[in-house]
Design a protein that fits this description.
The protein is of the alpha/beta class. The protein has 11 helices and 10 strands. A 6-stranded parallel beta sheet has the order 1-10-9-4-8-7, sandwiched between helices. β7, α7 (129-140) and β8 form a beta-alpha-beta unit. α2 (23-37) runs antiparallel to α3 and α9 (208-222) packs antiparallel against α10 (228-243).
Length: 264
């Protein structure tokens, strides 16, 4: 927030693209929630490793939601600037009709973008640092239009020419929110703003835990965006009412409590 005020980052517009969770996805989410609850005794986690793995599985239900694959064409079509954009994928597998087999989500997305005549390349831990730097250079110069990643773009990589980002997969990690947004908003010659397209999966009222995860990210990205007051606040207010949430429920942190007192 401070960096935006000081113009150390470019301003941005936030576009949440919302789809409904399927009944199977909600049931899977609830299943992992019950198993996670069994990891606690008297309010203390007695099996943190198991709880962590179950949490990852729970979040993967959202990351790999069916709607993200079914509506990928509509999602890509919504991106206004496709000459310098990144796509964050899930780390799971899905069935590919063309290959008649299960493939990684990231490969499925690259295959789709290639069919759309977009010059896309994956950016993962499989590429060594020299290869990554070559990709970054090609992307900054426009020889590659799209970088597709899972988490590798979150830390230690500076790609200031990014104009748009599509978040197909995200979790409930505040640090990830901050890193991704900061990565997208870096200053670059001729870059006046950036666009963030975030794919949210919202469930029925009975699966409020899933809604809480998605609406937290909605609020964190939306509250500093150019279109917060004109568009997004009203949309978020409607969803909060739908799920009986308050802003306190979806605030990742108490920002006032995070203020560091000045050294006197």
């Amino acid at each position: 927030e401070e960096a935006l005020k000081r113009k150390f980052l470019v301003p941005y517009s936030y576009y949440p693209i919302i789809y409904n969770a399927t009944e199977d996805e909600e049931n899977s989410f609830k299943y992992f929630s019950k198993r996670m609850a069994a990891c606690f005794k008297n309010g203390v986690c007695i099996d943190p490793d198991k709880c962590y793995k179950l949490r990852r599985s729970q979040l993967r239900v959202i990351s790999m939601a069916e709607a993200k694959n079914v509506h990928l064409g509509d999602i890509v079509d919504a991106v206004k600037s496709k000459d310098h954009f990144v796509v964050y994928c899930g780390d799971g597998m899905l069935f590919d009709n063309d290959e008649n087999a299960e493939i990684r989500h990231i490969q499925s997305v690259i295959n789709f973008l290639t069919k759309k005549n977009l010059k896309a390349s994956q950016f993962t831990a499989k590429e060594n640092m020299d290869e990554r730097m070559e990709l970054v250079n090609a992307f900054n110069k426009g020889r590659i239009s799209t970088l597709v990643a899972i988490r590798c773009l979150d830390e230690g990589i500076n790609i200031p020419s990014i104009k748009s980002a599509v978040i197909l997969s995200s979790n409930d990690d505040y640090r990830e929110f901050v890193q991704r947004r900061g990565r997208i908003l870096r200053l670059f010659e001729g870059k006046e703003k950036a666009d963030i397209y975030d794919i949210l999966i919202l469930p029925s009222y009975e699966t409020q835990g899933m809604a809480l995860i998605e609406l937290r990210r909605f609020y964190e990205y939306a509250r500093l965006s150019l279109n917060w007051d004109t568009e997004l606040k009203a949309i978020l207010d409607a969803y909060l009412k739908q799920y009986d949430f308050t802003y306190d429920d979806i605030a990742v942190y108490d920002y006032d409590d995070m203020e560091v007192p000045e050294d006197e």
